[in-house]
């Protein structure tokens, strides 16, 4: 079958109408991040209350053809565990350099 190089305005208008009438697939196509967020409560129950490890949860999800890394699942399990991240070293070094200069008397 040959490829068309020329179209009529009527064909373009019909194609536009047909494309505009296609259904919205957004509710049916859930991103990986949204899927993991949706499963978050269940993952937390498994990890915190039922004794499952991150590896166990990953294996169960793999069997259902939900491919998430152990790192992603671990992030869900450890999210909000109260751990505060340290400030980057660079910021600490900058703060230390500023402090001694500020304490010198001005001439």
Question: SSE layout and pairings?
Answer:
Layout: H1 9-20, H2 32-48, H3 54-63, H4 70-78, H5 89-102
Helix pairs in contact: 2-4, 3-4
Describe the protein.
This protein is mainly alpha-helical and 107 residues long. The protein contains five helices and no strands.
The secondary-structure class comes to mainly alpha
Radius of gyration using CA atoms only: 28 Å
Mean pLDDT: 84
Provide the β-strand percentage band.
Answer: under 5%
Relative helix content: 55-70%
Distance N terminus to C terminus?
88 Å
In brief:
This protein is mostly helical. The protein contains five helices and no strands.
Question: Features of this protein?
Answer:
mainly alpha
């Amino acid at each position: 079958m040959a490829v068309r190089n020329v179209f009529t305005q009527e064909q373009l208008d019909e194609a536009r109408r047909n494309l505009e009438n296609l259904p919205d697939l957004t509710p049916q196509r859930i991103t990986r991040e949204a899927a993991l967020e949706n499963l978050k409560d269940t993952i937390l129950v498994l990890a915190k209350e039922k004794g499952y490890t991150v590896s166990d949860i990953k294996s169960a999800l793999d069997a259902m053809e939900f491919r998430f890394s152990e790192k992603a699942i671990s992030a869900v399990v450890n999210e909000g565990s109260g751990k505060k991240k340290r400030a980057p070293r660079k910021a600490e070094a900058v703060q230390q350099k500023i402090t001694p200069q500020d304490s010198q008397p001005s001439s």
